[in-house]
Amino acid sequence: MTNELSYTIEEVSQLLKVSKLTIYDLVKKGELPVFRVGRQMRVDANDLDIYINKQKTNQNQKFQAPIVHHSRNETKETYNIVISGQDMVLDILGKHIEKNSPFKALRSYTGSLNSLISMYNGECDIVSLHMFDGDTKEYNLPYIKKILVGYPYILLNLVCRKAGLYVQKGNPLNITSWSDLHQGNIQIVNREKGSGARILLDEQLRINNISPRNINGYQHEETNHLSVASAIAAGTANVGVGIEKVSKIVDIDFIPLITERYDLVMLKTPDNERLIHSVKEVLSSRQFQTEVASLGDYDTSLTGTIMYETY
């Protein structure tokens, strides 16, 4: 495996034939070293070989989760945490958490539902959610209650933002609502299963009695808002679900249809008390809220509000 200098998390998961979340869990526990290139984590090929050989020779031996840094006469323990989700606001959150706490923020760019399941399995520390429930018209909590069964947790608002439909410049097909998606001349580009945008689309199709089989392009999936918007800008599709911010980056039109609550959920365990305190402090700080608001298209009026908490 030493032909390559380094691997992405996805490449490592393919080589080891396990999920990306399993790799993130190894990184979080300190068992697999990583380094960053911009926003992307990479694994050195030699480190991967060392990990594999260690599992062969001594499967019971584990590395310690804390990463210990020695600076002159001081010893500082840094604890890896995994923040799951795709919005750029999560990168800002991670940066602020690292400033005044012992936590090092690692990022998993995974959709809401899969992230929540990974939290249930102990593989994520902070999960971001924007999952719409068509029956209650509520965001996130209906799903959390069904998945985090038996776990105490806290749900905090990160931001609110507009979600809706990306369309080509000038909206040539005059798309104005979810019910327009059944038109035969519409070619959609979809998000991957488990993402908040995919859940929003599927719930709206159900509410409007539209069968996915009647949606041209329903099987065409992309893994992030930017890829969906880019497909529409390039003309390979003419409508997709996403958030307002990205439409301005790609310069396409956006039809706002719903205000979604983008929340954070954390498990309430003794080990997580300090992390929860740090996240609360960051979300309520003027510095964080000002930085997020300066990006535009994010509503911080609820940021830091406890939306739900179990004991």
Give structural attributes.
D-Maltodextrin-Binding Protein, domain 2; 10-stranded mixed β-sheet; Arc Repressor Mutant, subunit A; HTH_17; 3-stranded antiparallel β-sheet; alpha/beta; PBP_domain; single chain; globular
If you had to describe this structure to a student in words, what would you say it looks like?
The chain has helices at residues 9-16, 20-28, 45-57, 89-99, 112-120, 141-147, 196-207, 225-234, 244-250, 273-284, 286-293; strands spanning 6-8, 35-37, 40-44, 67-71, 74-84, 103-108, 126-129, 132-133, 138-139, 153-167, 188-191, 221-222, 239-243, 253-267, 306-309. By secondary structure, the protein is of the alpha/beta class. The chain folds into 3 domains: 6-57, Orthogonal Bundle (Arc Repressor Mutant, subunit A), CATH 1.10.10; 67-152 and 265-309, D-Maltodextrin-Binding Protein, domain 2, CATH 3.40.190; 162-259, Periplasmic binding protein-like II (D-Maltodextrin-Binding Protein, domain 2), CATH 3.40.190. Strands 4, 5, 6, 7, 10, 11, 12, 13, 14 and 15 form a 10-stranded mixed sheet that branches. A 3-stranded antiparallel sheet has the order 1-3-2. A two-stranded antiparallel sheet has the order 8-9. A hairpin with a 2-residue loop joins strand 2 and strand 3 (40-44). Helix 1 packs across helix 2. The longest helix has 13 residues, at 45-57. The protein starts with 5 loop residues before the first strand and ends with a strand. 37% of the residues are buried. Residues 58-75 have low confidence and may be disordered. Residues 7-55 form the Helix-turn-helix domain. Residues 98-283 form the PBP domain. InterPro entries: HTH_17, PBP_domain, SinI_DNA-bd. It holds the Pfam family HTH_17. GO terms for molecular function: DNA binding.
